[in-house]
From TrEMBL:
GO terms for molecular function: methyltransferase activity. InterPro entries: RRP8, RRP8_N, SAM-dependent_MTases_sf. This is Ribosomal RNA-processing protein 8. Keywords: Chromatin regulator, Methyltransferase, Nucleus, Repressor, rRNA processing, S-adenosyl-L-methionine, Transcription, Transcription regulation, Transferase. One of its GO terms (biological process) is rRNA processing. It comes from Eudyptes filholi (Southern rockhopper penguin). One of its GO terms (cellular component) is chromatin silencing complex. The keyword Transcription applies. The gene is Rrp8. Pfam families: Methyltransf_8. Essential component of the eNoSC (energy-dependent nucleolar silencing) complex, a complex that mediates silencing of rDNA in response to intracellular energy status and acts by recruiting histone-modifying enzymes. The eNoSC complex is able to sense the energy status of cell: upon glucose starvation, elevation of NAD(+)/NADP(+) ratio activates SIRT1, leading to histone H3 deacetylation followed by dimethylation of H3 at 'Lys-9' (H3K9me2) by SUV39H1 and the formation of silent chromatin in the rDNA locus. In the complex, RRP8 binds to H3K9me2 and probably acts as a methyltransferase. Component of the eNoSC complex, composed of SIRT1, SUV39H1 and RRP8.
Length: 221
């Protein structure tokens, strides 16, 4: 009846509010703090993921599909690391060996860890992926970790919400300092940018100004 419908609507609103709150926390804390948040409150992770899937479901295209298509065009022998893998769409869609990292396991394919410190040897992967996953404020530390595990000449793919970039050129310049040269930029989607880099060498260990992404905060609906 009407009261059940009302209750369902209230519950939906509460979940949406919790999603926005958790999302904001993830974008405004370090990856270590995010790891603590989800460890102490696994329900927060579920709520976050449901909200995330709803948001991306509204987009005309999910960037993860673009990355899958890209990987399918390249040799299946390449080893991939998926940082912030969520429900492991990449690992379950390609033939490659994929190391899938996230804070909480949504799938048995996930290795649970903070993406700033993954259990991989140096120079052991060919392709590192961050699909909508560059969330922590310790961006530089996270990208240095990707640099560490990538082989020389290896590929770094970054898909991020378009409105998070303040200045793409400054971002790409900062990436150069971290040991990544820009290979291609796909800015054709209104929702996300897809950037491809190649590892040129180790990062220069100093702050990379311009390496800034705005938090992606969702509006109340
Ligand atoms: N790449 C997936 C999921 C994106 S949602 C996709 O495109 O479908 C962002 C993911 O990054 C979430 O699953 C979140 O838990 C994860 N994440 C955020 N901070 C992390 C961290 N410090 N270490 C590991 N995973 C993290």
């Amino acid at each position: 009846g009407r009261s059940a419908a009302l209750r369902a609507r209230m519950e939906e609103r509460l979940l949406a509010a919790r999603f926005r709150y958790i999302n904001q926390q993830l974008y405004t804390s370090t990856s270590q703090e995010a790891a603590q948040l989800f460890q102490s409150d696994p329900e927060a992770f579920e709520i976050y993921h449901r909200g995330f899937a709803q948001q991306v479901g509204r987009w005309p295209e999910n960037p993860v599909h673009r990355i899958v298509r890209y990987l399918r065009r390249r040799p299946a022998s390449l080893v991939v690391a998926d940082f912030g893998c969520g429900d492991c769409k990449i690992a379950s869609s390609v033939k490659n060996k994929v190391h899938s990292f996230d804070l909480v396991p949504l799938s048995p394919l996930v290795t649970v860890c903070d993406m700033a410190k993954v259990p991989l040897a140096a120079e052991s992967v060919d392709v590192a992926v961050f699909c909508l996953a560059l969330m922590g404020t310790n961006l530089q530390e996270i990208l240095e970790e990707a640099n560490r595990v990538l082989k020389q000449g290896g590929t770094l793919m970054v898909a991020e919400v378009a409105s998070r970039f303040e200045d793409i050129r400054a971002f790409v310049n900062a990436m150069t300092q971290l040991g990544f040269k820009s290979v291609s930029k796909d800015l054709s989607s209104a929702f996300f940018h897809l950037l491809e880099f190649a590892k040129t060498g180790p990062p220069r260990r100093r702050p990379a100004p311009g390496l800034r992404l705005r938090p992606c905060l969702y509006k109340r609906r």
